[in-house]
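Sorry to interrupt, but I need a hand with the structure work. Go ahead and set the record down below:
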Amino acid sequence: MLTSSKFAAACSGAALLALAGAGLAPAALAARPPRPPSVPAAAPAAPAVRLVAVVNGSPITNVDVDNRARLFALSAGLPPNPALLDRLKPQIVRQLVDERLRLQAVEKAHIVVPDKAIADAIREIEQRNGMPPGALRQRLERTGVSFTTLVDQVRTQLGWTQLLRQTLGARATISNAEVATRQRLMAQQNGQPEYHVAEIFIPIESAAGRTDAQSFANTVIGDLRAGAPFPVAAAQFSQSQTALAGGDLGWVQVNQLDPAVAKIVTEMPVGAVSNPIAVPGGLDIVTLAGKRTVGQDIHTVLSVRQVFLPFSSPLNPTAPTAQQVQTLQRARQISATVKSCPQMEQVAVQDHSPRPADLGQVDLDHVQPITFRQMLAGLPLDKATQPVVAPDGIAVLIVCSRDRKNLAQLTPQEIRMQLLSQRVDLLSRQLQQDLRSQAQIEMRGTA
């Protein structure tokens, strides 16, 4: 039986939040502090507040739209220039309408998301990006994004996950018989091709909305092909439940995909981003992360522990600060004295390392950059690396185990999570459609 925490994982994959799926890009958030102007600059005038939409009597304003557009641009590492923000706004209005409907459904079900749960979720984002507590709020507000924008998004996502759990009830339990059936099917499919796919689903409720949806899809595709991270774009704009996992569908076969999507996936190269694909209910944008043969996906898998020592300011290699020099000395000491993984974990606690000590299962074949992969490949077990210096701090790592593993063979628990994720996604789409069909939505002009 799946616990509440496992249910949340099925809903959100590796992360519980939209922004945690891919992580807020450190390079995007760690903007250089502005230089003080020689003449004090006047504060920009606050925009006039006006209604953009009313959802069952609940208003959405242009300020809400602006904040969410800036949050997406910042998360994706894109410059929040007026042209980009204007292109994003039509779909953001739609996203905010859907989120408002979800929040109303959560409140109607008397589901209360505790402030602590929201704070813990935001702290998880900070930990994933090596940020000290409170740093995310400071960086968002420094770039003109209200922290309330992130809080509201997190609150809605956590509440919606709880609502889905309650609605599924007993259906949230995947039986042993269902697992066994999936295992038999997988055994029969050995040798068949399999694809690692991620999606961005853009719904279309009416013929009138098709043009706007197509235009927005083209905008997103342009940004993706220009380098915007696919998981971040999916987390912000996909209306599938997989959005919370960065759009990741995992490893699938063609018979598990919509026929139109399957045709494109089988023809596209790894790393490509598709054009908009018409599917029932809307448009799909997909990317292909990998190909393999069912039952055959042998990789070198590492168990790794680390200590990360952050810098108090970005590193200037030609002029390191005293704190950075001291940090390097401490890293060298750790590298010379740590001889085991349990010892590395102890040091991580003692030194208050802001990043997890246990990196989990690391697929060596996918480690980037290649120089780092080569370093880990040649590192003896239980021997710490030399300090690995980055602009925001220094890491020391140790390899605990190195095994050859067939990643195409799913454990019963992994199969349960896969089946539950599919069930949750279907329910989420159905509930969202029902909420829209029953709602009173009044659009006021444009965003």
Notes: The chain has a mean pLDDT of 82. Residues 177-296+423-443 form a domain with the Chitinase A; domain 3 fold (CATH 3.10.50.40). The first strand starts at residue 51 and ends at 55.
